Amino acid sequence: MTAHGDNYVLDAGKSGHARLRAISEILDERTRALLLDAGLKAGDRYVEFGCGLGYVTRWATSIGADALGIDLSADQIAEATELSDGKTEFQVGTVYQHGLPPDSFDVSYSRWLLMHLNRPVDAMRSIYAALKPGGVMVCEEADMSAMYAEPPSGYHEYVEVAFAVGATLGVDYAGGRGLHRWANEAGFEVVGIDAYHPHYLTGEHKGFWTWTFREAGANLVKEGGMTEARYEEIAAAMSAADADPLTLVAHARMHQLIARKPAQRLD
């Protein structure tokens, strides 16, 4: 398991790239709409923290923004750079120590980053420093407690395992619900908060969280956090739910935040 952020339990190397592509397919349409609602436009300086393979960062370039993507994974930054054909800038770095000039960006964005961090408020303070006065921070984070299958089949066990692991790591997998509080503590003005909740009966993305569990659970088994038998039992139950067109699977609820760095006061 590659170290990624404070306590990232998924593979951050090349083996995780297909999962990141699936995330893009599931979420990017709403992400693009959110960023446009937040005011992202041509000519803006845009930075994405935890950019992964850079799908959203490259889209920002495509609408005319001066875009930069930052991620701790050198493998992901290498592929993001290759996919951009030199049109978008990417660099290896962390949200805590990004090295960006103060007061230099109009819009920042992150997705599924803060929920993996022990110090999300400190991360937001670091973002705050990089934004211009009046600049906008846009965040999307999950609330994994909202995941379920109806009729029940494996998903509630996955949620129990995830939150038990999160407690030992000091991270909050329901972090989406606290975005507004974190932003306020970091000094931002909250502009807007919203949420949406994907549900599936069928379709290629119905089993996304089973895929995620198989990746994270396999690492937990290797590290002694779960028995092989328990891992297989939960994965099999989740797979059965995914395959049944009469079983409804609810993904993690997605929380969306738009917050603004206060403009400088004229003394």
Concise description?
The protein is of the alpha/beta class and 267 residues long.
List the helices and strands and how they pair.
Layout: H1 17-37, E1 45-49, H2 55-62, E2 66-71, H3 74-84, E3 89-92, E4 105-111, H4 120-130, E5 131-143, E6 148-150, H5 155-169, H6 179-185, E7 189-196, E8 199-200, H7 208-222, H8 228-243, E9 248-250, E10 253-260
Parallel strand pairs: 1-2, 1-4, 2-3, 4-5
Antiparallel strand pairs: 5-10, 6-9, 7-10, 8-9
Helix pairs in contact: 1-2, 7-8
Describe the structure.
The protein is an alpha/beta fold and 267 residues long. The protein has a domain at 14-143 and 171-199 and 253-260: 3-Layer(aba) Sandwich (Rossmann fold). 39% of the residues lie in helices and 22% in strands. It has eight helices and ten strands. The strands form two sheets. Strands 3-2-1-4-5-10-7 form a seven-stranded mixed sheet. Strands 6-9-8 form a three-stranded antiparallel sheet. Helix 3 links the parallel strand 2 and strand 3. Helix 1 crosses helix 2 and helix 7 runs antiparallel to helix 8. The protein is globular and about 55 Å long. Residues 1-5 have low confidence and may be disordered.
